[in-house]
Predict the structure.
Amino acid sequence: MWKKTKVADQTATGQAGIKKKSKVPGVMITQFLEELPEGKTTPDFTRKPIALTIQEGKHAFFKAIVVGDPQPIVTWERANGELLFHPNVCFQRYDEAAQEHYLEFPKVAPEDADTYKCYATNEYGRAVCTAVLNVIEVGFSMTKQLQKAKMEDVSEIKKKLKARKTDGSREDKPMETEEKVWEILLSADKKDYERICCEFGITDFRGMLKKLTEMKKEREEEIAQFISHIGTLKPVEVKDDDCATIELDMDLVDSGSKIYLYKDGVMVPVTREESDGKKHNLKQVGNKYIFTIKNLGKDDAGLYSVDVGGVNVFSTEFKVPEVDFAVKIQEVKAEEREDALFQCVLTSPMNEIKWYGKSALLSNSEKHEIIASEDKLIHKLIVRDCLPLDAGIYAAVAGIKSCNAWLIVEADKDPAKKSKKSARKTTMAGAGNDEELLRIAKEQQERYQQELTEKMDIAKKTQAAREALEAAAQAEEEAAKKAHAEAKAAAKAAAKAKRAAAGKDGAVRKSKKKGADAGTASGSGNEAQAGALGVGAGKNAAPGVGAAGSAEGARGSGVAGSTDAAGTPGGTGGPGLAGSAGVVGTTGAAESSAGTAGAGGAGMSIGSGGAGLGNGAAGAGGEGLEEDFEEDEDYDSFEDSDEDMDAKGTEKGEETVDGSGAGEAGEGGKGGEERETEGKRKKRVRAGPLVPDTVIDPGVHFQAGLSDCKANIGEAAELECKVSREDCPGIWYKDGVEITSSEGVTISKDGCFHRLKIDKVTEEHAGKYKFEADGRKTESEIVVEDPPRFDAEELEKFKATVTVKKGHKATFKIAYVGREPIKVQWYLEGEELSDESNIKIEHSEGSSQLLLLKLQRKDSGEIKIKLKNEFGSVEACTELNVLDKPTPPMGPLEIIEASSSGIEFKWKPPKDSGGCKIQNYILERQQIGRNTWKKVGPIGPVALYKDTDVDHGRRYCYRIRVETEIAISELMETEDIQAGTKAYPGPPSAPKVASAFKDCINLTWSPPADTGGTNILGYNLEKRKKGSNLWGPVNPHNEIIQAKGYAVKDVVEGIEYEFRVAAINNSGAGEFSTPSEFIFARDPKKPPGKVTDLKVTDSTYTTLSLSWNKPKDIKGVEDEAKGYFVEIRLAENTDWDRCNSNAITMTSYTVKGMKSLAMYWVRVIATNDGGEGNPQELDNYILAMPPPVRPRFTDAKVKSFMVVRAGNSARFNMNFEASPWPEVIWLKDGAPVSKKVTVSNAEGNSQLLIASAERSDTGIYTIIVKNIVGQETFSVEIRVTDEPKPPGPVELDENVPGTVTVSWTASPDEKRDDRLHYMVTKRDSVKRSWHTIADRIFNNKFTACNILPGREYQFRVYAKNDMGSSKHSESQKWLIPAKKEKFTVNMPESKPCDLQCAPKFIVPLKQHTAPQGYECYMSCAVKGDPTPHVTWLRNSISLNTDTNYFVSNTCGVCSLLILKVGSKDTGEYKVVAENPLGRAECSTKLTVRE
C-alpha cells in the first residue's frame, strides 16, 4: 500500500553523536545523525565570540554569527552559576539586518567575570564555543563604599528573620514586610524575581541578587542538617474539592524531625489524620508530604511556610481573588465520538481558570480546548471526540471557588460497530444556551462596572471633603495674614514718622554685607540662609531663642527685646548658637505695634543715633526683608530707600503661602519654612475660588461603551452601548463617515440602549465604528473573519460511508469556502496522507479531492479532511470500508456436550468478516480412522452446532469455513472430539477418625460431589504408616466397601497411620481423597489436669496478657496436655466466651477486644486427645485497664505563649498520659473557663478552642489533669490582639547639627496594648530604598543621627505589636543644603630615568651535541641600550654573511640555525655584542656525533 507520513521525534539535545571540528578554531560540533538529508547542515559559527577584558561599569557584549539549515537556535550559559537575564544586568538580542547574536551587559560588574558558552542548536546537531570575560575593578568609589556601608549584611538579615525557640519552632508573632519578601524570594523561581521586586519596591536588583545568593548558600547548609534530598516543590494549588494543597518531596535525615506549617509567620496547627473537623492536614506518602487546607475562605490568603527542625524549607504565597460563579457548569450527556461543552459565567473578570477532568488538571491540547470570552467572564471547556473513557466528573476552579458536573458518554449500541471505531460526529453536546450566558455575562459586567463606579464616587467624595477642609483652613490663614499685614503697615507708618522727626542725620547707611555682619537675622528657619537662624517671639509668644547659624560661625548673642505699644514686655533673646543676633538701638527704644520682637529672631533690628526700629512681624517674616537686601545691589541707606524697603519687604513677605514674608508671629520662625527650593520661590496659592461655585450639568455620559466584535462572513453582528439618559439622540460613524439604517444594517434605540445590527456581515462591513452623543464618543471595531467551512448538503454527502472491494479505488471530494490561503490536510485513521504512488491529492479553487488506489482491507477506517486558515479550522469525517475475503473462524473450540447421543460445540466468529455480514458457516466432518470428509452443509450465521449422528465412543474432527457475499474464508480444523467419553467419580472427603484403639481404628467419610453421571458402586480404602511412602490396600480389590465407614483392624499398637479413600462407579475407580490426619493405634487417653501458676503479665484498656505452666502428668489419671483454651466472661454475665477457636500449644496468650475498665473473670483449660481437663481460674477478677500511672504531659516542648488575631479562632492542644482515665479541668486566670470556650477531650489529648476570639479572652489558661495517682498542671498565656492603628502626624525638628528629632502622635491602640511599640524607617535622596533606623521604641520621639547636608530625607513611623505592624505615617521631606569646595589636585614632579647600559648576556649559550645530518639550534639573550650589534663567530670566523647559517636577532634574543650538521661544523661558537658603552662575549662548543 502507500506510506503514511509521520513526524519523527527530534533527536534530544545532548545525546551522543558524531564529534567533528569546525573550520573556525575553538568550535566543536556534535552531529546527531550519521547521514544528513540533502540540503541540510549542522550548526556552525562563522564568527565566534572573542575574549573580552573591560573596566567595571562599562558596556560589554559578546557577538556571534551562526549558520545552518534549519536556522539554529542560539543560547548562552556561564561556567560558574546560572545566567540571569534582566534588562539592567544581562540580556541577549538578535540583529536581523547583520544576522548577529549578542549577549550584552549594560553595566558590567566584577561578579560578571566568568567563562561564557555559546550554543547553536538545530535538529541535526549542535555547535559550541567559549569566551572569557575579564572585569577590571576600578579604584576607591565613594558611592560604592556608601552602598556597601548601607547594605545590610546577610547575617543581619538572617537575624531579622524569625527568631526561634529551643524546639526549632518560630516565635509566635506575625512576619514583617522585610521578612516576608526575603522568605518569598528564597523559594521563588528566577523568572518571578522582577515581579516580586516591583511588588515590594526593591530597586537595587543587583544587590538583591548578591544578597539572595549568599542567603541561599546558608540555607542549603542548614537544610542539609535535617534533609538529605529535596525534590519537587509545588506552590499552593487549589483543587476541585474545595481545598488547597502544598506538595514537596524530601528525604529526612531523622524521621523524627518535627515539621511545622506557618501562615504569615504564625504557626498553624496541623493534624496527620484525615478528619472533617480539622482545617489543616498533613499527609505523608513515602517521601512526599502533602499539606491540605480545607474549607477555603478569604482568611486563608497569606504566606505559607514549611519548616523542618527549625529550618525554613519552602515558602509560597496564596492569593485569594474576589470572584465567584454566577452560572455553574451543568451535567452534559454526549454520544460517543461527539464533542462536549462545559461553560460557566464568573462574577468578575479572570484571564483564565483551572479545569479538572477526573481530578486531573487539564490544558489546551487536541483533546481539550479551553476558551475565555473577550470580557473574561464566560469560560468554556470543549472535550473533543468523546469516548467512554472520557466520562466522569469535570470541575472548574476560579480562585477558591469551584463547581463540578458529570460528563456522561453514551456508547454506540449498534452490534455491527461494536468491534470497530465509529465515525466522528460534528455535533456538540451541552451547547445551545449561548444567548442566556451572554445576557448573564452582560449583567455581571454592568454590575462589576457599577461597583467600580461606586468605589470611585466614594473616593471622589472623600477627596472633595478633604479639599474642602484644606480650603477652609487656607481661608482662615489668609484672613490672619491680612490682619498681620495691616498691623505691619501701621507699624511701618509709625516708624517712618519717627525717622522723619529724628532727622536725616541719624540715618545709617548700610550695604548688604555690612547688614549681615551687624546681625540681621532671618526668622523663617530657612535652611538656605547662610546667616544665623533664630526663633522670634511675636505676638503672645514665648521668648525667642537664637538658632544655629551658618557654617562660618558668625558671632553674636541675643538681647532682650523692647516693649510694645501696650506695655507688654518683649521676649528675652536667647544666646546665638552659631550666628549673629539682632541688635537694638543704643539710645532709643525699639518699638513694635504688632508684637514684641525677639532679639535672636527679629527679621531686622537696626538702631543708630538714639533711634531704633523693630518690626514685630519679623519673628516670622524676617526672611522677606533680608532677601530684599541681598537682591537689591543699589540699596545704601534708609534715607534713600526707606519707602522702597517697606514696600519690597511687604511684597516679598506675602509671596509664599505659609507667610515667609508676613507669617504669623509666635510660630518660632516657621512662617518661612516653605521657602525657596533650588533658587525658585513658590508662588502664592489662591485661598478660595475667584468666582462663586455653580452647579454644572455634567451632560450625557456612557454607562457602557462599545465593545470590539468579531463575526464570520454571512453571520449577524451587533454593536451596543448605553448612555445615561433616554432622551439623548446619537450618530453612528464608520471609518469617520456617518451611517444610517439601510438594507442589511439596522440602527435602533431602546431607552438608554443604542444598537447597530448587521444582518449578514461582508468584508465591506469591517472597520472602526463610532457612536457620538452630546459630544461624548465611544469607539469599537468590527473584525470580519472568513474561516473555512463546508456546505451543509456537501457535508452530508461526504459523511456517507464509502464501500469498495479490495483492489478497487475510492474517491473523496468535498467543496468548501473561506479566505485564502487555506491549508488542506487529509488523514486516514489519524495519520496524515501525502502524494504517493497509491495516493493522489488534488486541490482546486474551492474544493479538494482524495483518490486512493489499489485498496486493501487494512486501509479501512476513518477518512478526515482538515481545513485551516488564519481565522480557524474545520474538520469533516467519513468512513472507508474495503470489502475482502473473511478470515477463518477463531478458536479455541468450546465443547458443550460430548455424549453417546450427540456432540455439541461452539466457536468464536472470525476476527475480520471482510466488511460484510456473515451469511453461513460451512461444516465438514471426518471420523477418525477414515480418509473421507462428509459435508454437513451451511448451518446459518450462528457459531454453534450440535451433531446427533454419532456413534458411542467414536472420535470426530470438524472443518469450519465462513461464507459471506464476497467469498468463503479459509478453514479452521478442530481437535478430536469423542462421543460418549467415560466419566469417573470425583474424590470423596478425607476420612475422619471416629474412634481409635490399640487393635482397631474406626473411620467415616462423605461420598463425592461428582458421581460421573452414574451411581456410586462402592469404595476402596488405603493406609500408610507415618514416615513411609507406600500406600497399602485395606480391603481386597474384589471386595469393595459398600458403606461410608469402615473398621480397620490390621493395625499395630503404638504405630501412627493415615488413610485415604476412592469412589467407584460404572467407569471405574476415581481419584483418591486427601489423606486423613495421623492417628495412633492405641487406647483413648485421659484428659489433662489443671494448669499451674496462672497469672496476668500485662494489661491495657483493650488487651490482657496471661501466662501459665503445664499441668502435672499423672499416669493413668491425667495425661499430658497437647493444647490450651482461654475463656473470659464479664462479671455480670454467666456464660464463658472462648477466645481461641483452635487449641494453642504456647503457655502464654493475649486477649484482645476487651471493654475499657470492664470487670472480667478469666480461666484456662488444658486439652489433649482424651478431651478437655478441668479449668483453672484466676483468684480475683481483672479490670481492663493499664497499670496505674501518674498524669504527665508527653509533649517535649510546648509553647507557653500564643498570639491570636481578634476574630480568629484560638486552638491549644495538650497531649498527656495517665492511668486510670484522668479528669481534665481548664481554668482561665484561676477561674473556670466561660461557656464560649469549647473543650474537647480524647484519649491522651485535650483541646481548648475559642471559636471567635476577642480581646477580653486574653489571659492565662491552665490545664489540670488528675486521677487517683496524682495530678499535673500546665499554663499558657493567650493574647488576643489585632493589627495596630497607625500613629498620628510625624513632625521633624533639628536641635543639634547633624541630627533630626522625629516626633509623632501616639497610636489610638497604645492605651489598650501594653506591648505596642514603634519602628522608624528612613529614606534619603541618594539611596531611594527605605531602611529601618530604630525599632521597639516605647515613647513618641526618636533622634536620627548622621544627617548629611545636601541630601533630602524622609521618615516613616509604624506602630507594631505581637500581631504585626500598622500602616505608616510619613513625614515631610527634610533637606540641609551642602556647600561644595573647590577640589585641587597636586601632581608630584617626575624625575627622568636613564636606562642606557653596556651589553650584557642574560641567557648564555649552552653546549650542544648533535647527530650528523640533523639540524642544530643555538640561542642566547642579550640586553643593552643602545641596542647592541651582534656578531656570530665559529673558530673566530664571522658567520653573519655565511649563507649556510641562519642568524636572527629578535628583541635581544639571538639565534643560530644549522640545517644539516656535519663534521666541518665542529668547533667553538662565539657571540659578540657591542654598543658605544661596551662589549660582551659568550661562547660554546658544538660536538657532532656520527
The chain is about 10% helix and 40% strand. Residues 1104-1183 form a domain with the Immunoglobulin-like fold (CATH 2.60.40.10). Residues 1-16, 145-155, 504-695 have pLDDT under 50 and may be disordered. The first helix runs from residue 142 to 150.
